[in-house]
Amino acid sequence: MRIKFILLGFISLLLSCHGAFAEGDIQRKNINFTEENLVGIWKLDKFSYKYLSGKDSFDSIYITFKSDSTFEMNNSKHLFDSDANKFFLTNNTPDTVAILDNVLTNGYWKIHRLQMPDYNITSLDLIYDDKSVQSGLSIYKKDTVYQIWHFFGDPDSGERLRFLKE
């Protein structure tokens, strides 16, 4: 009987947070992403809008990445702020996770590559003109399409913002 409980506990542990990803078929490692791949206009996907406050006032949230390593983002500097992500600290609804403030923001961007023994991970930092930094935006690839993701918590939960290049 004890072996059954141990086996059940082990199976539960494996199934609880097994590294599954919110969307299958996404390449998360060894992505050959260059600065040229980033340059252009990236729009927030429709699914992401459910996590935004004040979303009814906006029909398009975008980030424009320029070849001189600068960016321009409409509608919110606070879109990624951890302070704005109070959903995970309180019992608020998902509608209050990220804040839109109708502010056009500018700054610089930087791509990071973390080299591991068997693979590498690519991420993106945004350095705003006021010197505040949003680090760790994830760069993924599905088929031939690159994507920029920002998770509000556990990636298994699917609570995220995703930008797709136009």
TrEMBL record:
Organism classification: Bacteria, Pseudomonadati, Bacteroidota, Flavobacteriia, Flavobacteriales
Name of this protein: Lipocalin-like domain-containing protein
Domain of life: Bacteria
Keywords of this entry: Signal
Keyword Signal among record annotations: yes
Signal peptide start and end residues: 1-22
